[in-house]
Predict the 3D structure of the following.
Amino acid sequence: MSKNISYKDAAEFFRTHDNYYILIHQNPDGDAVGSGFGLCFALRLLGKKANVMCSDPIPEKYSYILKDYEPQKFNHKTTVSTDLPDVKLLGKGLSGYSDFIELALDHHKSNTGFADLTVQDPAASSACEVLYEILSEGEIPISKETALCIYTGIATDTGCFKYECTTPRCHIIAAKLIEQYMLPIGRINRILFDIKSTEKMKFEQKVISEMQVLLDGKCAVITINHSDMEKCGVTEQDTEGVASLPMQVQGIEVGVTLREKEENRYKVSMRSAEIVDCSEICRRFGGGGHTRAAGCIIEGDADQVRMKILAAVAPILGIDLWLA
Amino acid sequence: MSKNISYKDAAEFFRTHDNYYILIHQNPDGDAVGSGFGLCFALRLLGKKANVMCSDPIPEKYSYILKDYEPQKFNHKTTVSTDLPDVKLLGKGLSGYSDFIELALDHHKSNTGFADLTVQDPAASSACEVLYEILSEGEIPISKETALCIYTGIATDTGCFKYECTTPRCHIIAAKLIEQYMLPIGRINRILFDIKSTEKMKFEQKVISEMQVLLDGKCAVITINHSDMEKCGVTEQDTEGVASLPMQVQGIEVGVTLREKEENRYKVSMRSAEIVDCSEICRRFGGGGHTRAAGCIIEGDADQVRMKILAAVAPILGIDLWLA
């Protein structure tokens, strides 16, 4: 059983330990990168040794965060994680650390409690919001680099302050960070949300043109196979953000994106507008996440996986799958 | 010559006048609708009579704002405008009021000073931000309807807090409005930024696939003719937001969208990333706007209009148009 601790206790933990490995989840997004490196920069400013560990390379788009980052050499003593709901998501490269995580900093309500200590706020938009609160309440200094990281995570997980999970607190933290550190948010947000390679633009066009609208127009489904990605010349990374595309269709309550992982194995990303609890449905398939955005892995071919998800969603929408 | 007045003076004006026509620009966007109706609801709450006037119908997407709005019958006495930089933009239906506008509430630095009194802040993200300051400083009550309007305008003009023009003040106002009025921002932002008709989605795909990337990859140009719109079954309204598409291409500094108004007459929308002052270029062609987003009308066929814009942009990017 993991012990839940307060922001102040977490700050105390960071002050009294040293030689950190900070683990983040595979296929890292802006909140994983932001919370991992944001914590790392804050620890280094405290005079600690710290490195961020990820089983995948950090995507090129976050190079503005890694600009001045170099891994340090030291004898590893303390293992913590940020934005990690489940040790399964560490990936193969880091799975050896699964049983030795002393402190988990998270915002997922589905956090499995794998760490000795957990500092968690399911009401927080992002792990970066939790990090901000720890540093503020614990009076740990925030440098411009850390501020940039925290903004990145909050912006990523709120869809740039667009989603329902955007609280007044998100806006207040953003206001403070922009004001104090003169963050170049126009440039950062273009990198995070707008700029795409020509290949990615063409890939998204293809995905939209092949999207299926089902369940009386309330559910849109995108299916991405390896062969589609090869044809368009895009990588796994380029498919980031695709999961929000089904939600653009008028009248849609649930958007589902199926990504082929291996033969007969799909990663399912689910989004909802106002009614469906995605986290609850994905948990039934061994996954997790948030109310409006969650994911899971389902075995089967694309048709089978799609049917499993539709069968779970239809009754919540009050639709008889066999009549729809 | 128009006289610039303070927020407090503007609040005093609103308290001491009555029977308002509030004029907004043709082809109204979220900030025009938000500032016009936001002011209207606030005036009505003060016990005043007020109607919003626009020469175009208010787009369907803003129906959450107009839900409880009914035009009132009264003898018109006072004419004000919101979010209107130039009386040319009133459109034919309202051009008769051009010389009789007593107070202009605006945030465009290109405001031509057409009103007797102008309350203006070029540092404000939106007319709605100016409206919020007037109501707050003047202690004029803000109802939930007005709060919804103000949020709509700020969100619209900052690209949902994404663009460079997003200041700490924008975030602080958003935080206060969400907190005090429990605004359903998830739903509103989906309406404002995400949801599209199938026709619009297909139209955007077509536009992206035909986009030209010019000037050493630094300028992307979209050209929209009436025939393209007819083919896809989209209206003028559906082309809203298209101007941001060229900015998605990696490496782009300037995005240009040409929309055919009549034969040999194009509306040019210009966006920039970090260097080019769009407002300055558009003013050369008799238009105006903001540093990162501006517009103008240019006569000629699509090729001629494109060349005029490229010739203006190329030297700023340090590119020789004839070698590029």
